[in-house]
Amino acid sequence: MSYCTATYRLHDPKADFHKKAESIAVGLTVGSWTELPQAKRTAMQKHLGQVLHVDVHEDLSDADRYADITIAYPDVNFSRDIPALLVTVFGKISMDGRIKLIKLGFSESFQSAFPGPKFGIEGIRQQLDVHNRPLLMSIFKSVIGLNLDELREQFTLQALGGVDLIKDDEILFENELTPIEKRVEICARAAEEASKETGKKLLYATNLTGRTSDLKQQALRAIDAGANALLFNVLSYGYDVLHELSSDPEITVPIAAHPALAGAMYPSPHYGISASVLLGQLMRLAGADLVLFPSPYGSVTMPRDENLAIRDELISSDLSIKTSMPVPSAGIHPGLVPVILQDFGMDVVVNAGGGIHGHPMGTAAGGRAFLQAIDAATHNIPLSDYAHSFPELQTALNIWGGK
Ligand SMILES: CCCC(=O)/C(O)=C/OP(=O)(O)O
Ligand SMILES: [Mg+2]
């Protein structure tokens, strides 16, 4: 029997977790079991959920008593798409008390419906021709209300700072001043101009927004205008929309998944969906080439163990699809680069908005400060030593800290 699995964490001071596990396995598959006549049971057997593990943690105070329960759900019960899987394993039960979905397991059959990221970590590096260091991404800031000239100016300053990628802020939607095709056209030209000075390639992830029914055409218009990457607010649309876009052969550019709304689902230890599932397993399965998430060190933080669990899922060999690039974000400044590399290694995008635009010497200097920090960290040179020769980095360390 081919099945997908779901592991839940249930907190309860008194529950019989084995009994609870059985009720979940039956309740989310055949509905009832012991009352069924034998003939009906034989017919329904192939649909019956199976309890695989119940790992009870008793050695804690009543308030902390919990169990991790893993249940197998027969593939025959649901279609091979993420909505069907999520409703099957965590639809009704997500509303039934203190239960959190902490891990998914995909059958070969289910996985085969997902081509995964088109580019992945290696493909992104090939697009940029950068192979031996972390990548650097900057973020447009205060863009709402800017016209095309002002947008081009901010883009150019970021590009001249030597960044590898530039992304729209996730709150930049279609608008009369900077519609996507025009935004892409002027930024593509500005990237070409900047490249004459920096000698570097650059990906610009423009925010794909608007009604779901128009997203594909919107993406094709952007690509026709010169877009070489897309940003997408996945959770406000749903994973299946990302799956649709990433698996479409006409959409020939990498997709960066923004975590907007994720905070409604992952933080509680007792409810919701763990970050490693929400921003790790499902984003990669649905085809995100890069995945942003709150870092452990910035302004909007996520615990370090959850960050590393996301990273593990984005690069895990458990899935036979390409890997997704981890992008720990929010409140990142050059002084954090050593700890980012320590936690994530080389396959990471250092991503910053305020940490670049807020540099006292200007936006371009902000980019240079990050590149100097990345060069120092990749050669195990303390930032404070390296900064003696680089005023942009020294200025960043003076105002934001780091050593
Ligand atoms: C986790 C997403 C981070 C994000 O969207 C963003 O705009 C970060 O900006 P800064 O915190 O680097 O200014
Ligand atoms: Mg943002």
UniProtKB/TrEMBL annotation:
Stretches assigned to the Ribulose bisphosphate carboxylase large subunit ferrodoxin-like N-terminal domain = 7-104
Q: Which SUPFAM superfamilies match?
A: RuBisCo, C-terminal domain, RuBisCO, large subunit, small (N-terminal) domain
Record-linked InterPro entries = Diketo-Methiopentyl-P_enolase, RuBisCO, RuBisCO_lsu_C, RuBisCO_lsu_C_sf, RuBisCO_lsu_fd_N, RuBisCO_lsu_N_sf
According to its UniProt record, this protein's enzyme class is: isomerase
Under the heading Pfam families, the entry gives: RuBisCO_large, RuBisCO_large_N
The GO molecular function terms of this record are:
2,3-diketo-5-methylthiopentyl-1-phosphate enolase activity; magnesium ion binding; ribulose-bisphosphate carboxylase activity
Q: What is its EC number?
A: 5.3.2.5
Q: Does the keyword Protease apply?
A: no
Q: What are its GO biological-process terms? A: carbon fixation; L-methionine salvage from methylthioadenosine
Query: What keywords tag this UniProt record?
Result: Amino-acid biosynthesis, Isomerase, Magnesium, Metal-binding, Methionine biosynthesis
Q: Which residues form the Ribulose bisphosphate carboxylase large subunit C-terminal domain?
A: 120-400
Q: Which family does it belong to?
A: Belongs to the RuBisCO large chain family.
Protein name per its UniProtKB record: 2,3-diketo-5-methylthiopentyl-1-phosphate enolase
Task: Name the gene.
Answer: mtnW
